Structures are given as C-alpha cells and as structure tokens.
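Appendix B. Chain record.
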Amino acid sequence: MTSNMESQLRMELYLLRHGESIKNAGQGRGSKSKNGNPGLTENGKKEITRIAKSIRKFKITFDIILTSPLNSAAQTAKIISSIFKMKDNTVNCDELLPEGNSLELYNRLQDFASESSILIVGHEPYLTNIIDDIISQQRSKGRRSRLVTNGTSERYSQTRKKHCRQERWIGQDKDNFNYS
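Structure tokens predicted for this chain:
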C-alpha cells in the first residue's frame, strides 16, 4: 500500500534558464562594473514575460521558485513571480550559482514536500547537468521521464532504444501539440 502511494506522489521540477542577459548579449563584456552579472536586457525581460504568460496558459503552477542569486536569474524569477501573482515564494539559492554544487541542491530539494511543483531558475551549463543527472537516475531505475526545458519537450524511455524527441516552442498553440 505504501509503495502504491509513493508512486502517486511526485515532485515536479521545471527548469528555466534566465532570459537574455546584458553580459550574454555582449553589452556587458569588458565593463568595469562591480557586478559581474548586470541583469537582463529589455529583450530578455520581454522574452521571459512571453514565456511566463505561455506557461500560465498551460495551467502550470508553481509552489515555489528557487533561483540563483545572480541578477539575470533573480530578475527572471521576479518576472515569473509577478506574472503568476506569487508572493514571498521566491528563494535565492546559492546552490544554483554557476559554480554551485548540484548534490547540495538535491539535498535542499528534499526539504520540500514530495508533491511540490518547483521552478528552478538558473544558468547553463548547470541546468543541463541537472537534466543529465535526472535522466541518468531515471534510466538506472527503468523509469521514463518527460522534461520541458527552454521550450523543448523531451521524453526518454529506458525501454526504448531510440531517443524520442518532440520539439515545441512555448507559446505555440497547446491544442496542436501531441504529448505522446
């Protein structure tokens, strides 16, 4: 009975790379700013606003947002929080810094209820490494995972030899997308 109940409980993790940053857009390179991460460009803010509104159309909700404390990620989390009308549900998480320790992040995630829906806002390649860890863990247990990252839905299965990949940009009409 316990194993059946455990199989029904799951933590939903959503990973989102910060919007276009001034640094990544080339506008901040070589600057003498004290802040090595000056934040989002106007285009980056608009991009995240569009993504947040698209996510909301899918009726996805978040219990909490964990974000890197760097400005680009923190500003992204603030925009998402505003669009979703979340108050006091954003937590700066040093484990999400680009040089963060993923094992410490996984330990921190255990502090949340197993049925939580958590948005993780961070940086590349750190987020990709987290995805790799999740996929590897699921494969070793013979389970399937479906991940939605940066507008791409990917489904992996230990029982299939080939990779099945469905690409879909967030904001596309959800009725025209096959989730199989």
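Further analysis of this model is presented in Appendix C.
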